[in-house]
Amino acid sequence: MNNFLKGKAIPVDESCKAEPAGEPIKQLSRENIFSIIINKYAMFVALIVIAIFFQWQTDGVLLVPMNISKLIMQNSYILILAIGMLPCILTGDIDLSVGSVVAVIGAIAGTMIVSMDMPVGLTIITCLVAGLLIGAWQGFWVAFVKVPAFIVTLAGMLLFRGMTMVILNGNTLAPFPESYQFVAQRFLQDIPLVGAIPYSTMIIGLILAVCGVYAEWNDHQQKIQYGIPVSGKSWLFTKFGLIVFVSLFSTYWLTQFKGLPIILILLAGLIFMYSFICHKTVIGRHIYALGGNERATQLSGIKTKWVRFIVFVNMGLMAAVAGLVFSARLNCAAPSAGTSFELDAIAACYIGGASATGGVGTIIGAVVGGLVMGVLNNGMSILGIGIDWQQGIKGMVLLLAVAFDIYNQNKKA
Amino acid sequence: MPNILLEMQDIVKEFAGGVRALDQVNIQVKEKSIHALVGENGAGKSTLMNVLSGVYPYGTYKGMIRYHGEECKFKTIRNSEDKGIVIIHQELALIPYLSIMENIFLGNECQSKGVVNWGKCRFEAMKLMETVGLHDLPDTPVNKIGVGKQQLVEIAKALSKDVKLLILDEPTAALNDEESEKLLELLLMLREKWGMTAIMISHKLNEITKVADEITIIRDGKTIETLNKNTDEFSEDRIIKGMVGREITNRYPQRTDCKIGDVCLEIKNWNVYSPDIANKVIVNNVNLNVRRGEVVGIAGLMGAGRTELAMSIFGRAYGAHISGEIIKDGKTVKITTVSDAIKNGIAYVTEDRKGQGLILIDDIRVNTTLPSLKKLSLRGVVNAQKEIKVAESYLERLHIKAQGIHQFTKNLSGGNQQKVMLARWIYADPDVLILDEPTRGIDVGAKYEIYCVINELARLGKSVIVISSELPEVLGISDRIYVMNEGCFVGELSQAEASQESVMQCIMRCNKNKQVV
């Protein structure tokens, strides 16, 4: 009883070293693995099922290389918004203004480039800064004045839509120069130097495969080291195989059209970066903690106001990135751009398992949620289903996905 | 020989994952008696009551329930309420913005064809309020009355449902002595006049020995024994022996080699005003000091302003227009935020571990390291391995009973939750640790362990301030005691001077002076 508090803080550095492997490796049983798959990858499985369904229904059109490239490019801005939206939802807030922010950024870019003939680089920087300022504006009201985020961003939705119309004077500005459209329209081999390398897309696929296997192996080893139950060797190697197969096959598949879309590289970078921030950094922890119990987080000495502020500033930045990508993709700045994007981004987060009360959700989940909606949209369009039915079906998917999630959680408890 | 009203036979309840919460529990409750149910936290008391009241429907448990001699198969709470079995949970189920009257008749409105008859409602409510001794207007919103009165509203609500068997889960946990006394008398009165039977779950053994006719002791999901007022020994020590399965000779661990050092923290002329009500003084000119290696207790009745005092010191987490001086290790320090307080080596463990302490939807690891992530990170990136090691070492050192550091804190028992809170703040490595009601709602065994932790912290030269409403506890563990009443410190007693009587005298003297003025 008496030696449980020896010393001041625990000498973590010493005790951190791996213990000699005296204990046997804890392995998960087959049922456990199955339930983990169901819980953790449910939406992923749903995505695959939906994809297979449309693949069959569209006679293989859905997954042809050209359509896949198109699907990624068409949904990229929603996914970028979803990546920014997730932290907002984690802190228990919401941002309804992102659609309007996308429009206002497009308007600024259009005015600067098309009307005023300013350089593209300067325009992009200005737009990103504008995004940060918009985020800071909304974050100020939410975090420091404590106006509910729903109201602040509802006001922002109207405010920035109005601003867009003022800036554009009701007109649509077009066209943008080639260099501005680059990120949204082009492919890997269009980059001057990289394009000269043969098989550049496949090389990236190979790098991905190696990194993926290494990360998985590392994770496995660490779990063993710390006595966390792991899945068996066979399952591990199945995972390796899957990673290698998926990364090589998907890059190979893309080479059958025009190679890797540049937007996919940007998207992958953002997904990786924000997953890292959410799960490995102090600020990420603070975001989850704030959503889980605000008062407790405050009483742990965390400046919750600033955390919330930063989350909104980040959302502004992501909305600006999405605005740039969207205007580049459409090659115009229109007053009605981005209408109801906020709802798609929010739906993506919820379909991907985020909790409406905050504290629960992952970046990958939000991206998968966004893809589920993207594939549905695309598949139904190919089948010629009208926009009316598309809306209804998407609504049902959102409802059922969240209901499934809640059912699963209740079952666990 | 009184009739047996309720009989539960061989009740077995298992939760997902094979956790056996109840294992062959048997209990008999006689008509018109008050039956107490005691046991350590996690022993299965609340689970048993949830089985009885239909929260866990028939079929999810094994065993038989007989009520009034007939077998019952409750599917919902409604079924059990129809038979006159009403449960009042620890967390009160009142709607804060509705009036007392509306709360009493919630779900049971005086209505005809869906239209509420407010006149009749009011009349009935007044009658019920009279019975339970509640003298407010029936239109008062429930959030405007104190917890003690809210508890009475719950009982009135039960009476409106024509209750035969009332189940109370820790009814006095949030009440002060006076309110508790009142509640217990009400129970005795209802038994006499209404012929009501009651099952009461409580940790406050002195109350149980006062009002209960029979006591059933549960340990690890099994019934250990039932004590009868007339035939068995009915002392607190006897009950504790049954609960823990051994005799606890000393409820408070002995302090050994305590070296009390220099003054570590001193508070001078501390004033705090209420953030809600203008010009209301909550803490009035308080002076306090605590030395290294010293355990200082702050005694007082609930509502004396102790929590508010502690939270205002802890980076102004409570209150408005705070004035006064904080001197840490001889130097005046300016503390305006919680992180300032932590940087200056002050930590505060809240009394409300579920509401303001733990992140219930996160695991033990996250909860342990929350305020100290800086220590575990490099350039903003958390070192996951280090963190796991830290969490595991505290799990072991504080004897936290859990499946592992990845268990969610919402699934832990009260005692273990409190230990996670302690782990969090011990790892933050403060010089002064303020513990607010550290053992509220915790079983005897865990209490003892927490006292040991407090002693150990003092031995390591930390200053510990303990706020507690349980006088024996403050007396048992403190080197020095401040008595607080209505925002003022009304006495400072050394360990030798302090006794239940002397503390109460300080409070009474102060109240008397006020009446004279």
TrEMBL record, chain A:
Keyword Transmembrane helix attributed: yes
Subcellular location: Cell membrane
GO cellular component: plasma membrane
Keywords: Cell inner membrane, Cell membrane, Membrane, Sugar transport, Transmembrane, Transmembrane helix, Transport
Membrane topology (UniProt): Multi-pass membrane protein
InterPro entries for this protein: ABC_transp_permease
GO molecular function terms listed in the Swiss-Prot or TrEMBL record: transmembrane transporter activity
Function per UniProt: Part of the binding-protein-dependent transport system for D-xylose. Probably responsible for the translocation of the substrate across the membrane.
Stated name of the protein: Xylose transport system permease protein XylH
Organism: Propionispira arboris
Origin organism lineage: Bacteria, Bacillati, Bacillota, Negativicutes, Selenomonadales
UniProtKB/TrEMBL annotation, chain B:
Gene3D superfamilies: P-loop containing nucleotide triphosphate hydrolases
CDD domains for the chain: ABC_Carb_Monos_I (cd03216), ABC_Carb_Monos_II (cd03215)
Keywords from the UniProt entry: ATP-binding, Cell membrane, Membrane, Nucleotide-binding, Repeat, Sugar transport, Translocase, Transport
ABC transporter domain residues: 6-245, 267-511
SUPFAM superfamilies: P-loop containing nucleoside triphosphate hydrolases
Keyword Lyase carried by entry: no
GO molecular function: ATP binding; ATP hydrolysis activity
Organism superkingdom: Bacteria
One Pfam family in the UniProt entry: ABC_tran
Regions annotated as coiled coil: none
Protein's UniProt name: Monosaccharide ABC transporter ATP-binding protein, CUT2 family (TC 3.A.1.2.-)
Source organism per UniProt: Propionispira arboris
